[in-house]
């Protein structure tokens, strides 16, 4: 498909050379397979970029999600520990309706959302999701339950898997493997069914899915493969058709929270960053008291399940002036996401000041610490066996821990009791030959005692110690963030997400800030992202400027310059010396990019008969990259241009490609310049 340039320590496939200005280009794709020196191995089908490396800016007020109008926006907050949906009609954007109350629930735990748990039958068919899945699995006979596939907290797999692909697998509680794409698709199909049923009941007739704009939330720190994976799962679930991608928007969780916080009224939040009394209590006297009061207030208002938001900006926002800065800290089950925004008045648009950051510091870290404690007391061999042999009982134990975990507070003095399932006590005796009580006495873990009622009795310091590693990670990350020059003079810090309810975390953030910023916690903090995602779906252009999390580019050939380029990168063709593996930067790490802003490149097929152009995309966390072979630079995706159906009699075909980096996903569009026909352009981050 491309012209041979000769042999340099192995065959090199390259391309013809041409630009708009001269017969031999200064900027030629030399994209090759990943080897120590990519220039010295087999290359991709050759393509020639025809345009220089400039960013062309379109009208940044244009809406990147233009398309058909929708009657309703439905947002799905797909969380690590809990999930739910909410919706708003486009004619009533100030009314956000949250999903129906779920059947089931735990003592002391709000069931406004449902656990992110899924159950498949022994023949791997979808059975149930959420409380229904958990309760059914719990009621199965142990001999039967080991054949069923129960999964929980599986969302983190998309963040932790280095080479995520459509074939990535998850492990069910019984140890059996199942394709991750199937599990995520089942979950999204469940929410589609629930939402459509509720909308149909309201309308009094079957509601047409084509009238819905769907929004799915993901952590801002997720890489592009994980975002694309969620989109692929949505296609598989039938949420939206593949040929209408605009019907689905991927929303970044802290951005959604930020959008909602713009609408806050004073009675819808708690200010724990000041000494003034807010909502009838003094936040500094008791960190957790305000949250408890807020929960009661929310429960009393929850019958309608409808939240009214300001149609412009809330009372809190009226205190902000042009250019004021604030931080959103989204503390979820799996990850903690931090984003820094600046207000742009009078419309209240938002500008990202520093690339989204964070890490796997969510509340499930406390669960892992509890599991480590159990391993210390009872032995890791027993815990591993118990999880496999009695998976439903293990789920019961973690549910019991979850409710006590939520009772942890800085000022707590009385012990916390955690029920041990009977099967745990029974199986341990069979496994070890002695009692659970004996194990506790021998373990030298003096802060956990045995209660004759069949409970582990933890003193408050022991419970607080389980929180410490996770909270330390969050505080360290916040400290590092506030040391950045872009993150100075922060007016507000919004603490959102389910983990934000923890008084221990609230106190730690207070102590870290020392009054530098006001700490604001919205009421019903676990639904902040969900409600913000609905608002984002109604107006996706509200975030006007974002920061690129990585440096993206392609490998090219440049004219070889003596003394500037390494000798081992030199390639000679027709008497001209070229430097291979040069990194042509599309966008740099932490670079500001406006919504609607595009990076433009033009390419030409190596032969008139070539039907598909494939270009490897590389990325790096470094801001400046010289060569695609540098350490830390990796191939992260492919740009595919399908030029079938755009044949022309022109001697040289120019395919002009526009890539958008200012949205929550990277987008590509292309056109054949000679015929003005649209070329199918796609960027794939999952197929490596």
Automatic annotation (TrEMBL):
Residues 36-63 are annotated as: Disordered. One of its GO terms (molecular function) is ATP binding. Keywords: Acetylation, ATP-binding, Cytoplasm, Nucleotide-binding, Nucleus. Its main location: cytoplasm. Residues 50-63 have a biased composition (Polar residues). GO terms for cellular component: cytoplasm; nucleus. Signal peptide: none annotated. It is found in: Cytoplasm; Nucleus. Adapter protein for SORL1, but not SORT1. Delays SORL1 internalization and affects SORL1 subcellular localization. Belongs to the heat shock protein 70 family. Interacts with SORL1 (via cytosolic C-terminus); this interaction affects SORL1 internalization and subcellular localization. This is Heat shock 70 kDa protein 12A.
